[in-house]
Design goal:
Layout (H helix, E strand, L loop, with lengths): L6 H19 L4 E6 L4 H10 L4 E6 L1 E5 L2 E7 L12 E6 L2 E6 L13 E3 L2 E3 L6 E3 L5 E3 L8 E7 L2 E6 L6
Parallel strand pairs: 1-2
Antiparallel strand pairs: 3-4, 5-6, 6-11, 7-8, 8-9, 9-10, 11-12
Length: 167
């Protein structure tokens, strides 16, 4: 059997990722979510390297019905609660938008960033994200900012992770 990635390479990647997370998040509580069963071994190695308060969740997904491949379904009942998380809320026209407040590039506080043309700009490294869907409008960030579904109910604003949306 040919080894494609050595154990040492995997361990080095885990250590590098843990160092990046630790630098970005400091000692802030972190929710780590494993997607699909195969990621649990990697997740276990990763969380052993993190020195911060952690909550761990597993998202159960499926895309096969018997032997036929179908649409990806997410079991929303297993999603972790987002209570206590920092969220940026912005009223944009008649809509309220919600994004994770900490920039996914380097952890900058988006609530201190500039709002312009339907985007928020991180004050630390100028990554710019669209309020509507969290997509990157300008880097250095390379991945979308997490978003939340929003519902205004009377004088309350209710949010839930967009990832918990039924398929």
């Amino acid at each position: 059997m040919k080894i494609l990635v050595s154990a040492a390479q995997i361990q080095a990647s885990v250590e590098s990722l843990a160092a990046q997370i630790q630098e970005r998040e400091g000692n802030r509580p972190l929710t780590v979510i494993a997607i699909m069963t195969g990621s649990i071994v990697f997740l276990a190695d990763l969380i052993r390297k993190l020195e911060m308060p952690l909550r761990v969740g597993v998202v159960q997904t499926s895309s096969y019905r018997g032997t036929a491949r179908g649409p990806l379904a997410i079991n929303a009942g297993m999603m972790p609660d987002i209570a206590g998380r920092d969220v940026l809320l912005v009223r944009q026209g008649g809509a309220v938008r919600a994004l994770a407040d900490r920039c996914n590039h380097r952890g900058g506080p988006l609530h201190r960033g500039a709002l312009e043309d339907g985007c928020v700009t991180c004050p630390w490294h100028a990554s710019r994200f669209r309020l509507e869907d969290g997509s990157v409008d300008r880097g250095p960030a390379t991945s979308p900012q997490p978003t939340y579904d929003v519902r205004v109910a009377g004088d309350r604003i209710e949010i839930r992770s967009a990832a918990s949306r039924p398929a």
